[in-house]
Amino acid sequence: MKILVVGANGQIGKHLVSFIQNHDQLEAKAVIRNEKQESFFKDLGAETAVIDLEGDVESIANAAEDVDAIVFTAGSGPHTGKDKTILVDLDGAVKTIEAAKMAGVNRYIMISSFDTTRQAIQDAPRSFAPYVAAKHYADEWLKGTDLDHTIIHPGALTNDEGTGQIAAAPEVERGEVPREDVASVIVACLEKEETIGKEFQLVKGDQSVQETIDSL
């Protein structure tokens, strides 16, 4: 199975591409913003596609023509303005969803925010509310399609080494989760068709990734 990883140069994305390239049945195609980011992925033997998520849908669809699944891990980052939040976290996600439909790619995994309910938008600090709103509407757009989707809502992301021990369910107590473990969960979802149509929150826990995903 060939996976288009959108946001591959991000911290989750790099872990994910590494895991995919070490998997017997998966291979990655890394979407990056510019050619300067290629070396990391070439060293892993991964194909790359240089795409601007603020560009047109067709460029994303062209990159997706030879893949079996898309994982959206892209984000505008905490140091950009509300404009980038809209253009990347919302519009970039929606364009990638539309590109999947254009390219005939049915499997789609979205890395969202921990809580993207309408109540979460209302409760969020003013500076964070636009991001929550963007993720809310991107999630809703995906759920309104016929794509075989999975939506993962990770808790507060850390750069701690992954433990392989998580908790995941439609609702869990808010907490942290290493980015490396998020990447492991994505791989487990790609391996397991039963995660299609599932949406769950994800934090550190005391159960293995495989056992947790099997129990969803």
From TrEMBL:
InterPro entries: NAD(P)-bd_dom, NAD(P)-bd_dom_sf. It comes from the Bacteria. It comes from Texcoconibacillus texcoconensis. It holds the Pfam family NAD_binding_10. This is Uncharacterized protein YbjT (DUF2867 family). Residues 7-192 form the NAD(P)-binding domain.
